[in-house]
Amino acid sequence: MDPIVESYLKNFIDKFNIDNQIQEPKKFEYFSIFSVLSEEVNDSIDNRDLEKIVLPDGTKGLDGIAITINDMLVFNNEELANFVGQRLSINFYFFQVKTSEHFDDTDLGVFLDTVIDFFSEKPKYNINIEEYLNYKEIYSELLKIISSLREVNLSCYYICLGQKQEGETTLNSTIENKRLALSNYNFFSNINISLIDKSTLITKHKKVISPLRSEFKFDNKISLSCINNVDEAYIGFVSFSEFKKLILDEEQTKIKSLFNDNLRDFLGLDNPINNNIKQTLENCKFSEFSLLNNGITVIAESNSGRGNTLVLENYQIVNGCQTSNVLYECKNIEGIDNVLIPLKVIITKDETLRDEIIVTTNSQSSFTEEQLFAITQFQKKLEDYYLSQKEIDGIYYERRTNQYQNISKSKIIDIKEQLKSFMAMFFEVPHLVSGNVGKVVKQYRNKFFQKDHSPIPYYISGLLSKKWDELIQVNPDYKKFNKFRYHIFMGFRYLVEDLPFDPRYLINPKQYSIKSENQKINSYDKLLNLLRNGQDLNDYIKKSIEIFEKVDYSRAKAAYSSPITEDYKNKLQEYLNPL
Q1: 291 and 152 share a domain?
Q2: Residues 512-523: pLDDT tens digits?
């Protein structure tokens, strides 16, 4: 491995807290799959996601599998329930990763044969690996709702450190033969088989880890001045020929990550409003488009351009996701480059103002109070609490994707992990957060991130999540329980607390205490002190695992099983209250 790739790999391993005990080829698999897949999904990918995507050694011809529904990663068939009533865009991704310096025709053939076998009604290969079988189950469930599938795309990536050769090669012949075999399923809207060489891989990785940057002309604009905490602000109309530079990368592919701060994902062209926008464009009513459309709001951290040329750094489309995506889908309509799009551009680093803009510009959309609230008051309060403890524990709460560009991922808790660890630890639903966090949001939406909640229990669960990540790095025996991490978090709380937890304590933390020798002992303080004491923490985690081992966790999908959670709770109670 040459020094350049090795340097990028080392930075990636350090930032994403990938297990240093694994061998370099496996680390390279994590690095490569992250770099390629991150461009394809409308979701941030962390190390816990990668552990489900990167397959164990010994999986014939495959190093990784991912499936997205409407650009969101799914890891088990229970998550399909989150998309009921929607028309679904499905993407299957398969990966083969090699550290060799050339593409091997035999390896390519085996890789694509395994992909063909994955979709076969009568597979020849007996691959009995849990992660692989989970993806097979998702595929089987999708076949049952095939009438709801808007499109199904397949992408196969063979990645190595060689240099791709142009022209006719045996590799090209193999690709075309396997593409034909895959097309015979009559299942895929598009089949993409790509050879990713070293140069392409590095380019993709650099793009993923760098803030978004775009240069475009904004001629028809007026400046809005004297606004508190705003460096620059403009409102006006921009032609689609220039707007494309905001939403497309160098390969003219849609930049999916620029919608991370938008409150709603793209609803598809089947959505009535989006279909109306599409019809307006297809009927070449370009002048009417400007009058009928509410426009697009872009927020950026900085603008280094001059005059009518804007050069935006670290920007997001915070309102106008639907319009942007419909324009992208219609980008090849003759004459569309001349369409004028209402555009608002705001340059600010003020996070509070940013939140207010997101809420206000989306205020006429049918979002629930909880959805809007999730990015405002409580989230800011929680972020501030993390910052207040930074000198002690050194961790950060990332309420916005890529908020901390230069901080190691091993020090960051994002919203998704915060919700999972908190709900598992304090609301005792580790099986739900392991299997389908969307179900947690639907069933418990009034139980978390409420404005009158104390940030302390959230911080405790986030800190425990990071401490667990550290423990499995130094104690390989714990690693096999990583899929049950949320059960262990719940068990830890059971073993430490002085009083059984009650949701009322989220509002009044002082109630979460008992009298002992005429002194009040706050259980939140006790939990925090134990988390900050390495030996005590390890002792309690070890005991939590010992009790969990008395549960029959060997069956398939044990991490998602409600009966296993109940059995574990009973075992904890038996330990704490022996007869």
Answers
A1: no
A2: 877 666 566 778
